[in-house]
Amino acid sequence: MKTTLLTLVAAAMSLLTATPSSAQVATVPNGTFDTWVTRTGLEVPQNWTTIDEAIKSNPLFGALYSTLTTSKDAGSRNGAFAAKMETKTDLLLSGLLGPIPGGVVVGTVSANEAIDVLEDRAISTVGGLPFTTRAASMQFYYKLTGTNALADSAYALVSLTRTIGGVLQTVASGELRLQPAATYTLATIPLTYRSSIAPDSVHIGFVSGLGEVRTAGTILTVDDVTMNGVVASNQNPALAAALTVYPNPSASGEFRLASLSNPAVATAAYSITDATGRVVRSAVAAPTSLAAGRPLELKGLPAGAYLLNLSTPEGPVTRKLLVK
């Protein structure tokens, strides 16, 4: 188990331009936190996992964990309850990790995954529930109090993903370090898109403290979580149709790009990202003489799905690359 908590870093810059529409609101399952159920001997919000529940599910030390950092709060902004997350000292784990922050993650989460969220902001691979809208932003209301609330670094995290061929791809993500607020305050997290594909899952997390040094007593209360707007990629269908990639899939990791009808497409500057959104290859524009078969190689990378992002003079073009 790691003994320090890493602070969050800024979300990746968007590789695709997009146009949002704020007229639509997509429901987050039990985003009002009005419905609570009993699991693992704890009262938890339905469709969410608390950090307490995740820790108690560990077969090695879960039975010894007795701290309750997340509870339902009758002082909701709207409806019956809100989710109250409080950083507390635990007799078992605080000697290793310091005070334990309260937190909730949508979906089902194990103890190791909860620690990943706390230490590595790995929300894309943790929990998740079905969700297919290319939302423009996540909105919610929160309160954040405590004498050391600002330094404790409470965060909200959101990610949209899609699994293709057994490989998880991050479609969009966003995060926000929350500022202290004594009364319910509206927060909006714009989603940064890395792909033009539609998601199949949403991953959301709220944590009362992700600072390396935390103090007991910081309280984060969250209510009324929604996904807002719709983002549509402005990729030109004619540009996408002009591009041919072969062989795809590739057993060797070697590909060729061709666009005889529009040489600027295959020869445009590009970047290639893996399933986590990390850029693994990039190149400047090539001479148009290579439009009949521009070489592209992913040799040495693990088998799986990658996303090619071409920045043509007429707009972006994306294409999935499969390495066997």
Describe the structure.
With about 325 residues, the chain is mainly β. The protein has helices at about 50-55, 95, 110-120, 150, 235-240, 265; strands at about 20-25, 35-40, 40-45, 50, 70-75, 80-85, 105, 130, 135-145, 155-165, 165-175, 180-190, 190-195, 200-205, 220-235, 245, 255-260, 270-275, 280-285, 295, 305-310, 315-324. The protein folds into two domains: about 20-230, Sandwich (Jelly Rolls); about 235-324, Immunoglobulin-like (Sandwich). It has six helices and 22 strands. The two termini are about 35 Å apart. Residues about 1-25 have low confidence and may be disordered.
Please render the helix and strand layout as text.
Elements: E1 18-27, E2 36-39, E3 42-45, E4 48-50, H1 51-56, E5 70-73, E6 82-86, H2 94-97, E7 103-106, H3 111-120, E8 129-130, E9 137-145, H4 149-152, E10 155-164, E11 167-177, E12 181-190, E13 192-193, E14 201-207, E15 219-233, H5 237-242, E16 244-246, E17 254-258, H6 263-266, E18 269-273, E19 279-283, E20 294-297, E21 304-312, E22 315-323
Antiparallel strand pairs: 1-15, 2-3, 4-7, 5-6, 6-15, 7-14, 8-14, 9-12, 9-15, 10-11, 10-14, 11-13, 16-17, 17-20, 18-19, 18-21, 21-22
Short description:
With 324 residues, the chain is mainly beta. The chain has helices at residues 51-56, 94-97, 111-120, 149-152, 237-242, 263-266, and strands spanning 18-27, 36-39, 42-45, 48-50, 70-73, 82-86, 103-106, 129-130, 137-145, 155-164, 167-177, 181-190, 192-193, 201-207, 219-233, 244-246, 254-258, 269-273, 279-283, 294-297, 304-312, 315-323.
